[in-house]
Amino acid sequence: MAGFAPDTTMALTTVRQAAAGDAASFARIVAAYHADLMRVAYVIAAGDQDTAADAVQAAWLVAWRKLDSLRDPDRLKSWLVAVAANEARQLCRRKRVRTLAQIDLGMVDPGAPDPADRADALDLERALRHLSADERSLLALRYEAGLDSGEIGALVGRPAATVRWRLSRLIARLRKELRDA
Amino acid sequence: MPELDPFDARLQAAVRAFADRVDTRVDAAAMAERTIGTRQTGIRAALGRSVPVPVSLLLLLALLLAMLIASLGGAPWDRRFAVVPVATASPASSDTPLRAAWPPPATDGKGPEIVSGTETIVILAQPTGQTTASQPSLHGGAAAVVTDINDPRVTGSGTWRFDQEAHGAIAAESGRYHLENGDGAWDGTCRGGTWDAGAASVRGCWLTGTGAYDGYTFVFNMTRTALGSGAVEGVIYPGPPAGP
Q1: Of the candidates B180, B240, B231, B244, the residue with the CA atom closest to the CA atom of residue B55
Q2: A27 and B31: CB-CB below 8 Å?
Q3: Biggest alpha carbon distance in chain B?
């Protein structure tokens, strides 16, 4: 997923038409960004596909209702990701998602990559188990969505310095957990 | 995004590899249609134009006023069919008179308030089960809800998990409602009825607050006449839910 530089992939007219109630334009936005939203929600949901799907569905509802309040249509993608992240975080809080979808290591697909190649992902899964939904949200916005502290802060309404401090603590913790794994 | 150090790069690769496992397939048109269905038939649209106040709310208020004028004369809030349940607020203890002008303006988000707005609903799971004349129950319904109300305490998102008892073309509903925002949450039970294959419904909910809303009760009625948004009217007050 590319970073969140001003979004040139979605024409401003499409955004404006969708905000004005044009269904086809909104469907184009869904088609363009649904995967991005699902990826972020999936990380926050710690690998729970259903929770991620519920969160993104709720996010589209919010997006549809609030699209006309988007002040800068150039930032559509980051705004949508922030909405999805917020919905996923709230759903996880309610569900207290702590466990991850298990990888069945007993079933080996001959065409699949060597499991050893997935060591980082497996280590991360173990580390994610110990994170809160808020922390996973931070992780998803930083590493999946590719946002920096200032961008995250602007989206979640926190000072960039606060986000930077929380990120540094989170990264230090993950560094230790992944090293110890 | 700034340049990543080696650990950052490893972490980013791991996060993205993890995210690669999600199923991102979507029928965009269907998803959009499901979402938009709420707004095309939504109560904020009148003759194709957006209006600042939900149309159905205006209609409901007009109907309510007509009923009050015709039936009650000068003491409208003493009667049982008041939309805002009178048992939940005492004029003597409230800073906001119950007979405030309608629609109420945006509140300051503190203390007892009369509130109004909309609730938008998206069904996540239809209730299931086999219905017979003697066993009309359906279970496990779930919906995502988003409220847009003139008091920030009760504007947020949540879930409505419900069961139904079918009686021909109508069904009675009951279940648990959860609403939250960044400052706190509301939880409680609702009862109501639905018809027109679920497109129309009425529901009364009693919710108690937690977090910043600890000690408060939010009681509201929701009326929806078409798929999507429904009109919400209710009150927030300090104290527990009223007894039977």
Answers
A1: B231
A2: yes
A3: 76
With CB atoms and an 8 Å threshold, state whether B15 touches A21: no
Coil/strand/helix, residue B213: coil
- Residues of chain B with C-beta less than 8 angstroms from the C-beta of A64: 35-36, 38-39
Local structure of residue A140 (DSSP, 8 states) = I
Contacts of B1 in chain A (CB under 8 A): 3, 146-148
Q: Is the peptide bond before B103 cis (omega within 30 degrees of 0)?
A: yes
Task: Enter the tokens of residue B56.
Answer: 């159905």
Whose tokens are 């309404």? That residue is A157
**Cα B122 versus chain centre, distance:** 11
Domain B45-238: give its CATH code. 2.40.350.10
**Domain range summary for chain B, segments of one domain joined by +:** 45-238
**Spatial distance between the Cα atoms of A92 and A59, rounded to a whole number of angstroms:** 14
Indicate the helix (H) or strand (E) that contains A66: helix A49-66
Q: What is the dihedral of CA B69, B71, B77, B82, to 10 degrees?
A: -100
* Structure tokens that stand for A64 in this block: 């549809």
Residue B40 with chain A: CB contacts under 8 Å: 21, 23
Cβ distance B105 to B144 under 8 Å? no
Domain boundaries in chain A? 12-101+109-180
Nearest to B122 among A38, A58, A123 (CB): A58
- The structure tokens listed for B224 are 């929806």
The pTM score is 0.49
The answer to whether B193 and B82 are in contact (CB under 8 A) is: no
In this predicted model, which residue has the larger pLDDT, A130 or A115?
A: A130
The 10s digit of each residue's pLDDT in A9-61 is 566 778 888 888 888 888 888 888 999 999 999 999 888 898 899 999 989 98
Choose among A100, A121, A82: nearest CA to A46.
Answer: A100
Of A26, A120, A125, the CB nearest to B13: A120
